[in-house]
Amino acid sequence: MQPVIIAGAGPTGLALAHALAGYGVPSVVLDGTGTPPAKRLARTCVLGEDTLGWTALPGVGREAAPWTAWRTTSRGRPLAEEEFTPDGAPRHLPQHVLEGALRAAVADRDLVRIVPDHRLTGYEQRGNGVVAHTVRRAPEGMRAQAGSFHGSHLVGCDGARSTVRKLMNVPFPGRTGVERYAVAALRAELPRPGEAGLHRGLPAGEVTVRPLSDGRWRLDWPLPDDGALVTPETILDRLHSTLAAWHDGDVPPYDLLDTGVHLCHQRLARRWRDGRVLLAGDAAHLLGALGTQQVAEGLRDAANLAWKLAVAAHEGYAESLLDSYETERRTTVAARLRAVDQALPLVRGGGLSARLTGRGRNRLTLLADAHLGQGALGGPPVHSGSPLTCSPLRTMETATRPGAYAADVPVIALDGTRARLRQRLGGPLLLLLTAPGAGVWEAKHWLRAGLMPELATAARALPLPAELLVTENYPGTGPHTLLLIRPDGHLAAAVPAGDHESLEACARTLRGTTAPDVSGAPGGSGSRPPRHV
């Protein structure tokens, strides 16, 4: 099996390599620098409902601070508050911690090869694969060495200045400097430990406060769009004014750990795929305004793409399946960017924001959505218009829309193993049967009862690898409903447990086209001219 070549060793590239290894697919990661990420507490990320699985990586769990609640205030007056359960709380952690954990995790994977100090210079699509041409950085006084790597696909995870994107001749339109924030990371005792929030009407203006682990916090203040220089003294003035407002006019003791200015861009690549060459992460999109989470979107790219590349590797080339990656993910990010563009004038003042005040969703609620993982700014994507949308003969009712992220319910495997649904993702297609009372009995008692023998046989005959699980209940779903859940956690369909025809049809839809295209069309076996920089 040919490896997938991944250009870039940031969070998206490493997450993709890690996910591919879980599916038994090898990869080669071209690391242009070979250096670990800088330890910056002013660069953090928030992981929500559909990205929390990455907190299971060794070294992440302790650093990923769960929020106890979110509070929105104006001039000290509470306007909204939302409390979180420990399992469902957003996790906030430094980006370098996540990246370091991913780097350590892939280093333990036999199927992942990290190649340091190799910079991509060109690629060729030949037959059923890709050849990536590189230059290896040499010590001072020595000549750089050219090399090449052969793989099934090339994925550009090489950042906002992506070489892969440039080689694909793909425009990257958008806007630069949509928002600016002054950022400070500190260790201090602040009111309401563990609580994140948005506070307006303070002497320093608006501030977003988010807890990190070990008594550390990140504070963000939006800056005027005048482009004025932000000095360390400017940030300190805002910090002291904010802390004093929370402590009756006195600035409490604190340790300033990091500062910075965060500049938010809005960009979206016109295309994400050229045959066997694809884009992901910062190479494909940039966002961040109003609290939207760029790292989380890159992790979603990796989860969406990895299982589709695995199907192509194990089951036969899936042209329509790989087409669905761009359709699903680019559509989702484009909608997110449009939502930001529509929200910015509403939440940053002016007549429109005044008209919005008093409606069901006021501007402060809108500002919190991205941080809370809700609404158009932050909610998990719903792939309702995907080419992978199943059309079963009969559908069953459920609280989860087809294409939406499935609820994290307790599940039981056929060997009796109990877990959460989230823990079973990243493998085969999941067939989740709702069977009230199943948790009372050992698996050996219900494996031969009712629909189970017939369903287990049907699962083994599907055109995709599948695992049968059982849950006592699923939100909005009746007994004997079979939910088909994709490896990335999105619901494909809900069908009657005895409807094997619909089950097989949905599995074929999720597999995509299996016959390779020998005509030379995108993704087929025809060769393409080389691309070089």
Q: How would the blueprint of this fold be written?
A:
Layout: E1 4-7, H1 11-22, E2 27-31, E3 44-47, E4 65-66, E5 69-74, E6 77-83, E7 91-94, H2 95-107, E8 112-116, E9 118-126, E10 129-136, E11 145-151, E12 153-156, H3 163-167, E13 174-188, E14 195-202, E15 205-211, E16 216-222, H4 232-246, E17 254-268, E18 273-274, E19 277-279, E20 285-286, H5 294-315, H6 319-347, H7 351-356, H8 363-372, H9 375-378, E21 410-413, E22 418-420, E23 429-434, H10 443-446, H11 452-460, E24 466-471, E25 481-485, E26 491-496, H12 500-511, E27 531-532
Parallel strand pairs: 1-2, 1-12, 2-8, 5-14, 12-19, 23-24
Antiparallel strand pairs: 3-7, 4-7, 5-6, 9-10, 9-27, 10-11, 13-16, 13-17, 14-15, 15-16, 17-20, 18-19, 21-22, 21-24, 23-25, 25-26
Helix pairs in contact: 1-2, 1-5, 5-6
Description:
With 533 residues, the protein is an alpha+beta fold. The chain folds into three domains: 4-65 and 92-174 and 266-344, 3-Layer(bba) Sandwich (FAD/NAD(P)-binding domain); 176-264, 2-Layer Sandwich (D-Amino Acid Oxidase, Chain A, domain 2), CATH 3.30.9.10; 410-511, Glutaredoxin (3-Layer(aba) Sandwich). Helix content is 26%, strand content 29%. The chain has helices at residues 11-22, 95-107, 163-167, 232-246, 294-315, 319-347, 351-356, 363-372, 375-378, 443-446, 452-460, 500-511, and strands at residues 4-7, 27-31, 44-47, 65-66, 69-74, 77-83, 91-94, 112-116, 118-126, 129-136, 145-151, 153-156, 174-188, 195-202, 205-211, 216-222, 254-268, 273-274, 277-279, 285-286, 410-413, 418-420, 429-434, 466-471, 481-485, 491-496, 531-532. The strands form five sheets. The protein has an eight-stranded mixed sheet, sandwiched between helices. Helix 1 runs parallel beside helix 2 (95-107). It is globular, with a radius of gyration of 24 Å. It starts with a strand and ends with a strand. The model is unreliable at 350-361 and 514-526 (pLDDT under 50).
